[in-house]
Design brief:
binds FE2/S2 (inorganic) cluster, alpha/beta, binds iron/sulfur cluster, 6-stranded mixed beta barrel, 37 strands, about 950 residues
Amino acid sequence: MSLVHEIDYGTPLSKSEKMVTLTIDGQEITVPEGTSIMRAAMEMGTQIPKLCATDMMDAWGSCRMCLVEIEGRNGTPASCTTPVAPGIKVKTQTSRLAEIRKGVMELYISDHPLDCLTCAANGDCELQDMAGAVGLREVRYGYEGDNHLGLDKDTSNPYFTFDTSKCIVCSRCVRACEEVQGTFALTISGRGFESRVSPGMDEAFFDSECVSCGACVQACPTATLTENKVIEIGQPEHSVVTTCAYCGVGCAFKAEMRGEEVVRMVPYKDGKANRGHSCVKGRFAWGYATHKERILKPMIRSKITDPWKEVSWEEAIAYTASEFKRIQAKHGKASIGGITSSRCTNEETYLVQKLIRGGFGNNNVDTCARVCHSPTGYGLGQTFGTSAGTQDFDSVEDSDVIVVIGANPTDGHPVFGSRMKKRLREGARLIVIDPRKTDIVRTPHVEADYHLPLLPGTNVAVVTALAHVIVTEGLVAEDYVRERCDWDEFQNWAAFVADPRHSPEAVEQYTGVPAELVRGAARLYATGGNGAIYYGLGVTEHSQGSTTVMAIANLAMATGNIGRRGVGVNPLRGQNNVQGSCDMGSFPHELPGYRHIAGDEVRHMFEEFWGVHLDKEPGLRIPNMLDAAVEGSFLGLYVQGEDIVQSDPDTKHVTAGLAAMECVVVQDLFLNETANYAHVFLPGSSFLEKDGTFTNAERRIQRVRKVMAPKAGYADWEITLLIAEAMEFPMPYEHPSQIMDEIARLTPSFAGVSYEKLERDGSVQWPCNDKAPEGTPIMHIDHFVRGKGRFMVTEYIPTDERTGARFPLLLTTGRILSQYNVGAQTRRTENSMWHEEDRLEIHPHDAEQRGIREHDWVRLESRSGSTSLRATITDRVAPGVVYTTFHHPSTQANVITTDFSDWATNCPEYKVTAVQVMPSNGPSQWQEEYEAMAKNSRRIAAE
Ligand code: SF4
Ligand code: SF4
Ligand code: SF4
Ligand code: FES
């Protein structure tokens, strides 16, 4: 194995369809108009020396290394900033050019430390390469004059070092931060000899606006910005392309290795979801995979109050199977079930549901997608006929109006957030519908045209009011609707939304959004060109989550914004494989490919293939499993890679259900909160230790590749096979590719997917089959999957969770860039330096009324429970609304949330909880007890 090298073409690809032919060094080449001479040369295999150019961003033309001669033109233009022209004749190598390049390089080197042999970038330094390429043999200017060799290093960032003495002021880092990441954290201060790169106002990296995405480190051609791991352990010697295991963006990375040790994760330019960009999590926060708290030995105990006993894999698996069989013999087939993981691969998820349906003999399988995007499946299925986002991420480049509803892309889906910001800087307009002033509302060079700060729980009313304006002001795309949608249902819906009770003025009193903002936003979306909607959990995690998804789909159909690039309805998926876990049949009523278990034809096909009888009755959802456990009829659970105690609502109910079970089997990397209620702990594997695939928010199936052996001996899919065999339902696969072959054979939308195809094409978006052999980047192009698009009436029904004298504020929750979900991974990395604890955001007015000051401990109390955390006073939230993240188990925001849920899918209503906030002295008693217990577990693990 060797390092995967991607070609740097120097300047970005031109998208022009017009072609231009020119001659470079006597060879003819035809390239799209707008291509730079540098790129054209590179495409025919001629590398022109360069330092300030790189193909991730626009040319800058400052280093003067890339000069060329053009016949008939004076001077020596820079090839990176000079576009091709028809018929020109370019020379890239002449003695004049060689002389100039050597001179320029000599100046650079005369102010650069000559410690190449001991430099961390030795072997991976463009300055070193270019010195060689131009044939520099001597430096005539000594080091006696002014230079920058003694400048201090900035080591404030935990992941990379800024050694400014090595900086050649090429500004690649500054431009990467602006053009690729969109944070504008770096500047070049001073002029001429004095010019230096600095974060913010000459601050340390850690104190600046920098979000540690790593784009500048990747762009730097010298050792000025270098990953600390490279400094620590040296240059990598081989690399493997794989997929980030954090969020639903699905960034592709080169895992650059020394033996079995990861040196760095470098975003892969060929990754079609990320196009060479990354965020702090995927780029740097992978240290959890080798964290000392990982459990590497299987453990069992007969009671959850007993200490754990380490056992062999054989004993743990045999114990699991005998307990499950014993429970089923006594309480019936339906008394056990399992939960699949959206963090595991498609193949692993498929196996768990197959084990449950075929081996357990029931359909008691559910997934954590239940608690996030199940309303997406329902809502988009009803209206469009398929349960997934309609676009690829590239589509945003053609959007004219971007609507963000209940999503925080710069924190939750940062790489896509950067792509969105880029399009906004290019001139697209922005509408944000969110109770909070999220970063995207106002960020460098981006300002929302409309921010609709609705009260949590009123999404349906606001989206229906937008529809009211579109219908009553004659902004419907009638031709589109007549051709593509069911006209009768449209008329029915149009009459409904046109009712004056849905007008912006009528709903303002309970949504809190000024009517003129709703009217302006509706007009902009309907008339501003290509309109694309992106939404997140702020839409789905409500008692009317499914209704809001349908209301969004209605809006898109009414304005003709479905079925081409630049438009669409796009759920921003939370976990890396939440799309895949839904696709793979993780819900109790659906076989893989969203086909109902009661459908005889499909069920018989699976029965025949699996050689087993399948129950036609849908099984239990997670909340129903827990209810049944409390009632005594559900006693065994296999949980792969989920922590339902932390991630599911109403913690008390979850723990009561788990405590009532007789055999809870947890398969995970760490002793998570759910493991406190487990009888068997099976050590899981990280994404670095297995092969498989993830499916991202664009329906893109991408390979996960093993870069090291499983630390505990088995990959997660192999553990499921061991259980299946012990349950006498053997599943003899030798490699995940065989599992994918079976998925393809049984699932029409995956029929064309295979590992061979993924090796060849890098990735593919489902549906991929005979009708779409290359996959489907954009859905519903000529017609909706269900035939005619279906408008659904979306009556606003306020949640039963109401504010009142006792609980006067509304709590809503979300995530932060540096942490991920319940924090099991990110809290075990240096990312915690940015977010050590969950904080409560409260408006200055509400804080003052309660005598709360910045950083004070406050008690947050709802009808379900209470917790304490510290306050951040900010007008990002409106008066009456408070907000917190849920990354730290010592806070457990879900102690507060209620058991209200979406009417169609049971997705919990995380985003609306009536609460009271009051000053407190510190953590509450249960938090102190929890901290003591967690410390103890950490100590045991360390021993
Ligand atoms: S790490 Fe990212 S955000 Fe920070 S300075 Fe570099 S490019 Fe900008
Ligand atoms: S830090 Fe690196 S990328 Fe930035 S200006 Fe200096 S040499 Fe160029
Ligand atoms: S945006 Fe998501 S997928 Fe990409 S690197 Fe960050 S966490 Fe990973
Ligand atoms: S690479 Fe063209 S001027 Fe620097």
